[in-house]
Specification:
By secondary structure, the chain is an alpha/beta fold. Helix content is 37%, strand content 23%. The chain is built from 4 helices and 6 strands, in the order βαββααβαββ. It has a single domain, classed as 3-Layer(aba) Sandwich (Rossmann fold), CATH 3.40.50. α2 packs across α4. Belongs to the CobU/CobP family. Pathway: Cofactor biosynthesis; adenosylcobalamin biosynthesis; adenosylcobalamin from cob(II)yrinate a,c-diamide: step 6/7; Cofactor biosynthesis; adenosylcobalamin biosynthesis; adenosylcobalamin from cob(II)yrinate a,c-diamide: step 5/7. One of its GO terms (biological process) is cobalamin biosynthetic process.
Amino acid sequence: MILIVGGAFQGKRAYANNYLKKEIHWIDGKECEYDDIFSSEGIFNFHLFVKRILRTGEPDQFPEQLMRENPDIVIVTDELGYGVVPVEASDRAWREKTGRICTELAEQADEVHRVVCGVGMVIKNA
């Protein structure tokens, strides 16, 4: 698993394609089916995927299931923990849960990259 994080509009997906030296088949976390993540090469807008699964009931075992069923996935997600704290409690819960899931995935990932202004930095390479 490769986890790529960074702020919004920082070129994370382009960085991933360049780093991997190929165009992979991406699914969009904003609109993909839940089960699609377990067989796709990569997902972008992962933070929006988490938001959607929180609305339908939080699957407690999601990170473990993803690591077990699709260990080679490339995950691209926005960092949500910086900036203004959301007013809405549901948005704060989403932000916290996304951070916790990403932390759990990063622990198990082979690689973790942080992208700023299109420039990536490897912060973990197992």
